[in-house]
Amino acid sequence: MLRIGRSTQRCCQGVSRREFLQAGSLGVLGITWADLLRLRALGAANDPAIRSVVVLWLWGGPSHLDTFDMKPAATDEYRGPFTPTRTSVPGTQICELLPRLGKLTHKFSILRSLHCSSNDHGVAGTIGLTGSMAGALNLGGLTLSGSARPCTGSIVSRFRGPSASGSRGLAESAGRLPSFIVVGGRLHQGKKPIIGEGGGKLGAVYDPFRLEYDAEEGAKALSLALSEELPVRRLEDRRSLLRSIDQIEQRLDERRSVRSVDAFYEQAFSLLTAGPAKKVFDLSAEPDSLRDRYGRYRFGQSTLLARRLVEAAVPFVQVNWSAHVEAEEDSGDGGWDMHYRNFEVLQDRHLWMLDQTMTAFLEDLDQRGLLDSTLVLVMGEFGRTPKINAHAGRDHWEKCFSAVLAGGGVVGGRVIGSSDARGEHPHSRPLTPADVAATVLDRCGITLAQLQQFDVQPEGSVIHELF
Fold first, then answer.
1. Which residues contact 349 (CB under 8 A, 6 or more apart)?
2. Of 422, 418, 430, which is closest to residue 394 (Cα–Cα)?
3. What is the mean pLDDT of the chain?
């Protein structure tokens, strides 16, 4: 049985290629990633309406009342201490702690009437990333491991395949890169990873390729990390052995020749060593002034890496603000889950970081001529309670929250949907994460007929007011 992640295929001898490699101390990456490249190539779709999607995922649930849907006329226990600021769009206000974005509001649109059906981080996160409730709940309200709909990035990966070489900019030297890349650790609620960040029913072969930014080491390709038992100097020996065992692969696919490792293994080897594609991950190639502009913190540098991936024509990039929902003071890594000290943390850290990085990203894309072909989505799994709790915080609130979209044909300066006077419920044009997912897939040029073939058709409708 050939095992690729959680996907399996029968071998005529009943031999597991993965087990064979492990037995030979070779099950590190090359085989698995090569298989990923090969299988993803089978799912390449037609030319899309846009080239790339970037999701800036604000894990933990940011407060809509303290960011993009303020309620200055509400009473003190709802509105909070921050005041609205004027923006570049008359009549549209956002938080005073987002002054740069206020000057750029004409470049993005705001959704103010999103809602979903769960206030559990893992469940709501799965809904947000997949656009579906399928497999997200059981009778106890707990997440069901492995049963979720594929996330939107995995669906795009299935139909778009690896990014094509020959595009302009970094893509000219990058060769083929993974078609779905997540920058940041796997999303967790407590110690449990959520189920909505992978290939779901499409199989683990469409799980994201994962990178991570480290302040000391820079960008690390976690999916390409070499084990301590396999230093780079031994890769040539490994490559030779891969060629020698390729006869097993012939039994799995009679169309392939036994003469050598195919092009996908060559790509995997290129990514593992000093191949051109690896240069895309190197942030040191960027000017210090630009790195400063994005912000010398994890989210800032991760978003800069996303811009390099867009320039290299990667179809879908997701940047995770954090891997855990909790703030650092609560044993997390800086998430947006602020049940107490909400306003203190927003003022001291989160909002100025979001303001600086998001503005730098949109301006950088625009200046490089990439914004029109790149759809940018900024959202979390839900919002926060409009009523402030006794600990100067806001709790989980799935009944109404906001998101921001830019680029990819989005008409800037629009506000779509509205919430009621306290921001508790949608007042007009109620929207769901399913509508957002349907919009993303539509902009990627993936047809309903294609999606129906794999039973991953959208559960929502395209938000046409954005375009």
1. 334
2. 422
3. 81
Q: Which two tokens stand for residue 155?
A: 């669906």
Classify domain 52-232+283-466 at the CATH topology level. Alkaline Phosphatase, subunit A (3.40.720)
Residue 253 pLDDT: 43
The secondary structure of residue 106, as a DSSP letter, is G
CB 332 within 8 A of CB 324: yes
**Which helix (H) or strand (E) segment is 95 a member of?**
strand 93-95
Alpha carbon distance 459, 148 (integer Å): 14
Domain ranges of the chain: 52-232+283-466
Q: Which amino acid is at 172?
A: E
CA 124, 129, 134, 138 dihedral sign is: negative
Give the pLDDT confidence score for residue 34 in this predicted structure: 54
Position 233 confidence tier, pLDDT thresholds 50, 70, 90: low
CA angle 109, 183, 215 (to 5 degrees): 115
> Closest by alpha carbon to 189, among 297, 61, 62, 299?
61
Query: How many CB atoms are closer than 10 A to CB 78?
Result: 18
